[in-house]
Write a structure and sequence with these properties.
With 335 residues, the chain is an alpha+beta fold. 29% of the residues lie in helices and 21% in strands. The chain has helices at residues 2-17, 19-48, 50-58, 62-74, 99-106, 110-116, 149-155, 160-165, and strands at residues 89-92, 130-133, 138-142, 184-188, 226-229, 238-241, 247-249, 254-260, 270-274, 279-284, 286-289, 296-297, 302-306, 316-323, 326-328. The strands form four sheets. Strands 5, 6, 8, 9, 10, 12, 14 and 15 form an eight-stranded antiparallel sheet that branches. Strands 7-13-11 form a three-stranded antiparallel sheet, with no helix packed on it. A two-stranded antiparallel sheet has the order 1-2. Helix 5 crosses helix 6.
């Protein structure tokens, strides 16, 4: 035991004496061992964490990043936003522009541009002209007194839900969809009703008395239209059909004997003219009579308007010529 203790003390003394000489070799050898250990363990760590190894491996080199950025800059082009447009905009017509081209450019129909700008069917525009462009295909409607979502939708032929669903339409009451007079309403896919074709209407004024007249014995056509029924033994007249309130003329000068519907027979409103030379003419089923019994009229004077009163199934004039009280075929006398 004493020998062991003595040997240990001797070894400790030796180490203590040489501690300065052994520190550097010891540290170097330790660091070398750690490096070798790291090299040996690196593959094992890489296999254990694949995400780390792949991201590290795929990191682009500085030259590759620079090349990609440069290429992207070279391919830069103008970006047109497809964000929905809420408002009506003004567009200045350029040289070479056409309505169809402008419509295609803004993604609306040709009629949409025509309606919002009150353009006629020629749809011609000139460079420098300013026109309005609706945000969507349809009709731009300015709310009038009495308008509702339902009446506007019906007028333009769409479902009212389309007006409500359009996100840029506003309402004074979101529950009842009440509209404000004067506000602009977008009617998506609405169609402007075709304007009614103006019709020439004769204003039924009372025909003045013609004074002293002399019948010519030559009869003019009492109205215009088509012959819908000829003279027959059971129908001793001709029928001339046309639209309601077509003017009816005196076939020759004469005196008014009957004007109106004094009884309840099938002639309805009628006029009987005595021409004073053995001839009489009868005009039946009139909508309106513009003469009175006892007055005189000239040949070609308006005496009433065509209609369908009495025993009649449609608008027409029942016209008779009587000679000596007997009905004859009017076509043999009309010029």
């Amino acid at each position: 035991m004493r020998r062991f203790e003595g040997a240990k003390s001797l070894a400790a003394e030796k180490l203590y004496e040489g501690r300065g000489k052994l520190v550097r070799p010891f540290v170097h050898s330790g660091m070398g061992g750690l490096v070798i250990l790291g090299i040996l363990l690196a593959p094992i760590i890489a296999n254990s964490f694949p995400a780390f190894s792949s991201s590290f491996a795929q990191t682009p080199a500085p030259s590759a990043v620079l090349s990609s950025t440069t290429e992207a800059e070279m391919e830069t082009s103008t970006f047109v936003s497809d964000k929905p447009r809420a408002e009506i905009i003004d567009y200045t017509v350029q040289k070479g522009d056409t309505i169809s081209g402008i419509a295609q450019k803004f993604g609306v129909s040709v009629d949409t541009i025509r309606w919002v700008n009150d353009l006629d069917t020629s749809m011609s525009v000139k460079p420098g002209q300013t026109i309005k462009i609706s945000p969507v295909t349809g009709v731009v409607h300015k709310v009038r007194k009495g308008d509702t979502v339902y009446s506007v939708a019906k007028y333009y032929g769409i479902d009212p839900q389309a007006i409500v669903d359009y996100p840029f339409n506003t309402f004074t009451n979101d529950e009842t969809f009440e509209l404000a007079v004067g506000q602009v309403l977008i009617v998506p896919d609405g169609v402007m009703p075709k304007p009614e074709q103006p019709t020439r209407q004769y204003l039924a004024q009372q025909t003045p008395d013609a004074g002293t007249i002399v019948a010519s014995g030559v009869f003019v056509w009492p109205t215009s239209g088509r012959i819908s029924q000829n003279f027959r033994w059971y129908h001793q007249a001709i029928d001339i059909a046309n639209k309601a309130e077509t003017p009816v003329l005196a076939a020759d000068a004469g005196k008014i004997m009957v004007a109106g519907w004094p009884d309840n027979i099938g002639y309805g409103n009628r006029i009987l003219i005595d021409h004073g030379n053995g001839f009489m003419t009868l005009y039946a089923h009139l909508a309106k009579v513009t003469v009175t019994p006892g007055q005189t009229v000239k040949r070609g004077s308006v005496i009433g308007l065509m209609g369908s009163t009495g025993r009649s199934t449609g608008t027409h004039l029942h016209f008779e010529i009587r000679v000596g009280g007997k009905a004859v075929d009017p076509l043999a006398y009309l010029k």
